[in-house]
Amino acid sequence: MYIHQCPECGKQYSTQEKVSRVKCPYCGAETNVSYSEQQGPNYQEQWRQFSNQASSVVDDVFSNGPSGKSRGVAGLLALFLGSVGLHYFYMGKTNAGILFLVATFLSCGILGIITQIISIIQGVLFFTSTQEEFERRWVFSPSNFPIF
């Protein structure tokens, strides 16, 4: 594993192998990479350094992650407009968004109460999770309808 630091945004990310050019998953900046022939720190040391630096940075709830999605925006959408599934549309889960929308309007709001309760729980989970966990569980999830 090779750890790179973006010259544009300053965030660190890793690649599995040596590459000549990398693209930052946070800001999209492309950078040429050069490697020295010196023996660098082993994998465990690289990961420890990366973890220490990542934990020292304040995790802003409204900052965008590598997917371009903010857990803060998704949380607000879930809390205030969750019964119509807008947070699912924002995360790219269109099938789930349509299901929430149809359930709310076709049942004249009866199922909207259930979808709103689910959405409030999801909104709280969005705010309390880390950006990586948010993207892994909801944005990059293979499921078309991630609930919890």
Name some characteristics of this structure.
148 residues; mainly alpha; 2 domains; two-stranded antiparallel ribbon
Class from helix and strand fractions: mainly alpha
What is the first-to-last residue Cα distance?
A: 31 Å
The pLDDT mean sits at: 80
Strand content: 5-15%
Q: Portion of residues in helices?
A: 40-55%
Which stretches are low in confidence, meaning pLDDT under 50 for 5 or more residues running? 36-41
- How many distinct folded domains? 2
Reading the helices and strands in chain order gives EEEEHHHHHH
Side by side, the strands of the main sheet go: 1-2
Shape: elongated
Rounded radius of gyration (Å):
19 Å
Largest sheet properties: 2 strands, antiparallel
Individual helix count: 6
The strand count comes to 4
What do you see in this structure?
The protein is mainly alpha-helical and 148 residues long. It folds into 2 domains: 2-56, no CATH class; 71-139, no CATH class. Helix content is 49%, strand content 9%. It has 6 helices and 4 strands. It has helices at residues 43-56, 71-81, 86-91, 94-106, 110-128, 131-139, and strands at residues 2-5, 12-15, 21-23, 30-32. The strands form 2 sheets. A two-stranded antiparallel ribbon has the order 1-2. A two-stranded antiparallel sheet has the order 3-4. Strand 3 (21-23) and strand 4 form a beta hairpin. The protein is elongated. The two termini are 31 Å apart.
